[in-house]
């Protein structure tokens, strides 16, 4: 039985990858951080009673900022494959926590690679590094592929640049099977609530259910190449099954503006919008509402709030995944439309409970964002 170790197992990709690897018969080990609240919700569907022998999913407390902890876990597990998905992954938050981001996302990767080397596991353990399309940053050329120059535009992307190159260096210097997956944005119903797609689908659900009036967003002109996380974790696995270690771009090749994602998500609840005004004065109003949800025509459902603008923005991402198609036989199965439909439907289901409570006279809690 192959053993995999996943850092960031409690995140979106960690959860989909866990499902995939368990299905493939792996023993899956994951590193979770100690938190004052439960943080395993995304992987709870795979829960196994820790008292039962021969478990397939085993969690270890740990942190990418703690070398001794990583060395101990890797020594104990002796993994065939490590998927380094753990990271402070929010681009805007990285401007507020740049040093921590460098430590966890940049040096954290070094700690993993160095642990494999020091423990004499180079010929046994393959390492996947979660690299990102944010490396491309300021547009140099489109579509972006494995040879497009990098120009990172945030502390997050710059930490990930270090992680990218240290992975390449350990491969070249020590012959380690270490690969970068340069993944473009990928989303799902499990996407973190403060990334733009999930923020939008949650707000659409709440507005449709009468639990919220307005969604506040930042730059509506940015363009992203959005795929589905389920497709992308399959690509991660395939990258580590190659004969030779190499880096790969995973992307759909289609880019969409934030504004158009907003339109698609509202269309799922029968709402048509018109966008009016420019930049920080832009709003979106309901122009028609058909179907079961009753949102008044004329209601302003989106407003721009410059609080969500970034000091430096990545304007355009569009990936070219021809190498992955050719060498890994990988291509995305989900369309953006199917993914938006799945995300909105999932968030409506989530908030129907709140609607029930509200209609029964209970207070609904607000959330910080
Ligand atoms: P999430 O933000 O959903 O998950 C991040 C995971 O990392 C969580 O499990 C989190 O734990 C964990 N983590 C954060 N800090 C640390 C730390 N110091 N030590 C150990 N674990 C930590 O991200 P995604 O699942 O979306 O992304 C997975 C990886 O892929 C990330 O590295 C991200 O940067 C990268 N990536 C993501 C893309 C995307 O579009 N989703 C595209 C390209 C790259 P906790 O649950 O406790 O917060
Ligand atoms: P990104 O994802 O920065 O591409 O990083 P995010 O969804 O946060 O932003 C995408 C674009 O939307 C614009 N935007 C907003 N973003 C957020 N979060 N909130 C808003 O209110 C809002 N309004 C507009 C942003 O300015 C940006 O242009 C994601 C993360 O998963 C990274 O970890 C990963 O490496 C990259 O994708 C690829």
UniProtKB/TrEMBL annotation:
An individual GO BP term: 'de novo' GDP-L-fucose biosynthetic process
Family designation: Belongs to the NAD(P)-dependent epimerase/dehydratase family. GDP-mannose 4,6-dehydratase subfamily.
InterPro entries for this protein: GDP_Man_deHydtase, NAD(P)-bd_dom, NAD(P)-bd_dom_sf
EC number annotated for this UniProt entry: 4.2.1.47
Cofactor(s) annotated in UniProt: NADP(+)
First-tier enzyme category under EC: lyase
GO molecular function, one term: GDP-mannose 4,6-dehydratase activity
NADP keyword on record: yes
Coiled-coil ranges per UniProt: none
Free-text function comment from the UniProt entry: Catalyzes the conversion of GDP-D-mannose to GDP-4-dehydro-6-deoxy-D-mannose.
Boundaries of every NAD(P)-binding domain copy: 5-343
UniProt keyword annotations, A-Z: Lyase, NADP
Species assigned in the record: Hydrobacter penzbergensis
The keyword Iron is annotated on this UniProt entry: no
Stretch forming the signal peptide: none
The reaction(s) this protein catalyses: GDP-alpha-D-mannose = GDP-4-dehydro-alpha-D-rhamnose + H2O
Descriptive protein name: GDP-mannose 4,6-dehydratase
């Amino acid at each position: 039985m192959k053993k995999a170790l996943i850092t960031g197992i409690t995140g979106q990709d960690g959860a989909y990858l866990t499902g995939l690897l368990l299905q493939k018969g792996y023993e899956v080990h994951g590193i979770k951080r100690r938190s004052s609240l439960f943080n395993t919700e995304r992987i709870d569907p795979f829960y196994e009673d820790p008292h039962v022998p021969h478990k397939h999913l085993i969690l270890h407390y740990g942190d990418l900022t703690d070398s001794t902890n990583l060395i101990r876990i890797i020594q104990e597990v002796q993994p065939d494959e490590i998927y380094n998905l753990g990271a402070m992954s929010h681009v805007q938050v990285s401007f507020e926590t740049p040093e921590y981001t460098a430590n966890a996302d940049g040096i954290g990767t070094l700690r993993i690679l160095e642990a494999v080397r020091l423990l004499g596991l180079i010929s046994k353990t393959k390492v996947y590094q979660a690299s990102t399309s944010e490396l491309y940053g300021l547009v140099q050329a489109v579509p972006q592929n494995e040879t497009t120059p990098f120009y990172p535009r945030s502390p997050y992307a710059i930490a990930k640049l270090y992680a990218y190159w240290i992975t390449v260096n350990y491969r070249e210097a020590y012959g380690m099977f270490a690969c970068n997956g340069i993944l473009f944005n990928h989303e799902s119903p499990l996407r973190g609530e403060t990334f733009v797609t999930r923020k939008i689908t949650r707000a659409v659900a709440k507005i449709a259910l009468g639990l919220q009036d307005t969604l506040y967003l930042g730059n509506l002109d940015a363009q992203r190449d959005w795929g589905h996380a389920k497709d992308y974790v399959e690509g991660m696995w395939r990258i580590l099954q190659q004969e030779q270690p190499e880096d790969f771009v995973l992307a759909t090749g289609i880019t969409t503006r934030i504004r158009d994602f907003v339109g698609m998500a509202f269309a799922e609840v029968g709402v048509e919008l018109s966008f009016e005004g420019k930049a920080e004065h832009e709003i979106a109003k309901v122009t028609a509402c058909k179907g079961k949800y009753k949102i008044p025509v004329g209601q302003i459902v989106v407003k721009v709030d410059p609080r969500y603008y970034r000091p430096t923005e990545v304007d355009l991402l569009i990936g070219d995944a021809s190498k992955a198609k050719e060498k890994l036989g990988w291509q995305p199965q989900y369309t953006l439309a199917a993914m938006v439909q799945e995300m909105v439907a999932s968030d409506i289901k989530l908030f129907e409970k709140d609607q029930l409570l509200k209609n029964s006279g209970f207070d609904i809690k607000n959330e910080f964002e």
